[in-house]
Amino acid sequence: ADASSDAMASLSVGAPKGTAKRDALRANEIEVQAMWEREKAFEANANDGTDESFFVTFPYPYSNGHLHIGHAFSLTKAVFRAQYERHQGKNVLFPFAFHCTGMPIQAAANKLKTEIESFGCPPQFPEEDPGVKAEMEADLAAVAEEKAKKVDNKAKGGKTKLVSKTGTGIVRQWNILAKMVPEDEIPQFVDPIHWLHYFPPIGVEHMKNFGAGVDWRRAFITTFVNPYYDAFIQWQFNVLKEKGKILFGKRNNVYSLVDGQVCADHDRSEGEGVGPQEYVLIKLKVLRPDHGQARHAKMEALLEKCKDKKGVYFVPATLRPETMYGQTNCFVLPTGEYGAYYIDATDEVFIMSARSARGLSCQLYENGQYFTNEFGKIECLESFSGDELLGLPLKAPLAKYEKVYTLPLLTISMNKGTGVVTSVPSDAPDDYVSLKALKEKPDFAAKYDITPDMVEPFEVVPIIDIEGYGDASAVFMCEKLKITSFNDKAKLQQAKDETYLRGFNIGIMKVGPHCGKKVSDAKPIIKEEMINAGDACLYFEPESRVVSRTNDECVVAATDQWYLAYGEDSWTNAVKKHVLNAGAFNAYDPIALSKYEYTIGWLKEWACTRQFGLGTYLPWDKAWVIESLSDSTIYMAYYAISHILQGPDNLEGDIAKSPGKIDPKDLTTDVFNYIYRNGDLPETDISTEVLEKMRTEFRYWYPMNLRVSAKDLIPNHLTMALYNHAAIWEDEPELWPRGYYCNGHVMVDAEKMAKSKGNFLMMNETVEKYSVDATRFACADAGDSLDDANFSRETADKAILSLEREETWILETLAADGLRSGDDLIFVDKVLLNETNRHIIGADKSFAAMQFREGLQDAWYEMLIARSDYRAWCQDSVVPMNRDVVRRWAESIAILICPICPHWSEKLWKNLGKEGMAVKAPWPVAEEEDKLLTRESAFLQSSLKHFRTQEGKAKKGWKSATILVTDSYPDWKVDALLWMQEQYNAAGDSFSKSFMGDLKKWATGNIEDKKLIKNVMQFVSFTKKETDEVGSMAMDVKLPFDQMTVLTSSEKYIKSQLNIQELDIIRIDGDAAADVPERIANNVTPGKPYLWLR
Description:
By secondary structure, this protein is α+β, with helices and mostly antiparallel strands. It starts with a helix and ends with a strand. The relative contact order is 0.10.
């Protein structure tokens, strides 16, 4: 168990039964926050008495509701680090703002308007009738059940006739707002601007309640509503355009037909981080049906109707055009729904799913021409069931066979590709297994009226040689993995992954004009040749399902766009060089660093504007609004001057409140260039003094030292911020971000947050229930890695009692009479001072590395354990505690825990009689740890633990107790220690990476008694761990301290802890040990005394 559980257990802290202790903490928090506000504790200005600044930021939250515990958890990483840096004597700036740009607010306002228009005000929703509600919930349940049955887990959900499904219930915008807003004010929220007036001030209030330590003079909201921020974003985009980073043209982007615009990450309710995926549509021409099957009547009629057109084609979507030489058939889903869609650009008819046809109608065919004459519209000439398409003869381009047939495949997803799959059984395991099943199971084929001549003549066509896999890799892998059915999904996926990867990387074409070429080289050439020959065309769709906030399933569309050219080589290389330079950028986690590198590798052209929604209008083209991920990339620089432009209590940028008396109209490109880019002094009505002050503020605070975020912003916002800094300050890389820290998401009580589970916690409600400091304590204890963390309500509950209990103990103890004082320190005094030093150093190291859970171990749990051991020793030994030692410990813990529980620290700091505010106090000065003393203390505690175990196992009725001690190791242990000393690198305080392997070789070659080898391995492993903790002294063949002195000086303590009245402590090699049996004596080794009960 870790120290936290040990400490809580040892303190017997349980959940509070009443609220008095919580109420006391809250009362103090309110008082402390008022004091901070009076004293302007967190306001920071350039050159506030120190040259060393620390600038930390957190992504501004979206202002369409209240902050929840997920926000709070991520937020604490910035809050804790900011406070830690204040204790280091740095001038710390932690500002905050609120994001209102984009579609979410607009979409919610539109939804509310529709609800009021449809159901009245206040609305009378149909589900208020129990019968209708039951019908709707059954409808929702059916949709959920159907979705769960989908083979493709990313299959779309669906809309019922009455309501859209989100989560598991019926969701109304009115009802969402009713939980946050007085009912009589809800109708005002049909105006999206009202959201901007309402929620950001509440956000400020909740953040203050959380004790976030923000410089609120610098707070603002985004969009044109704030003219100052609006001017800043216009300047940013003017600079980007001037530098050639913003271009215009038709580009493929994830797009909502309902919204009529590109759907970026922050505009989505599902599918964040999903981008366009390119496919190649292969045109398999439909030939005249040749089996006289009645089900082909509709197709025959269509072929007759379209005889003047260029043909009717099945159009499977593939990622592997180079494998088309191996086609043996085409698959459709028997129960699928298909259509025959007319393609204006080619005068052809495509057989495909309605979903894919919808997407195709939004895409370019060639030379700026769309597939259809009208964007987003496509003519359906006929509809078919999959069964009606089975058994049709097709002409497959590049195939060996003159004619192939459509066959059934039951695992096709109609929510991916076109619903049509071309079959290449040589290199696609699914295709091979499915074709084999039709050949070997006549009953299965007959069920779908598939005749033998549709399958029997079609053998696997070898097309690609792969070393180790042969020229039919799918056949090889299916035989190797013993795959016998298309229901062997896991094995088929393994086979598919392996064949596709090997085929692309080491495969060699063995057919066609590119025979002998590597697949990776031939693939793009074959794709281009097929397109030029009219046998194929490009098609795009989202990599996985994307749903807009207006509940529209998105497509990929080629639209006119202003876009940021993120893929440009020199720009990409500059960002990558910065991120991979450990001296310039700290990702705090190698996994996070790899994610930045990966994102930089794939992030390309990004549509940076929309045609409606909230935001800033593009300065040179007012028909476009800058989207939410693009107006939030360098706003950290705006914080540096926002207190001069806007000032306190001015989120929306009221010009009358501007401390600098600045009119936003005067914030020209030249003015911003002077402030941010070392431009020339501009001609402006803004005073030179104010201009110089703003420039000074920016140069003082930049670069940003740290940005804290949840990990889901790595693929978009965080990487885009790096790109934009690299563009705006191209010639000053020293101004680019210095560090990003990312954490995982947070669960509550080891479960994902969900209203249905009762564990969806809002930040402010959690503060009121548990207090600020207990909430922050539980956040610190939740975890720090990219893995999901766990906010434990039990931990918050226990923290309430622990905080209250410790404050009471400290103050009562220091106020009591009878404590010792002076410099005449006894062993345990020195131990507590040494432990205090050790934990100051440990917390310092952990906090600086953003490891707050580890820091909490040192700053709180381990400090409490050290104090508890000290208190117990003194009480049991009937020795008063030392007042100076207790005070040193108390003053230290007050500051060590201050980054996490600052309100508690402020009260204790004041009651300890200390000057000034705890949040401004310096970090405790730690003397170098006395590792020998650490080892002596550990020896005492580990011995006591060992004695308790022995006492518990002893037979009842024993009458005599003796502690046996020895200073001498047996020869085999001495040999092992001497060998360890030879392997130890004193300069690096470490062993080599091959240490354990070297140990095994040494032990087997040097220990004659082979029965001892296991003991040697265990002994060395234990000693290595101790060496890592206390240094090389752990390997001394003679202990560096006197065990007898430690034990005899603590005799009363040991007797009390073990509840033993009489106790002897003797050396095993002395005269007093003459009657100790050999079997007992053999249990005694240096550092591990033995309790002999008899």
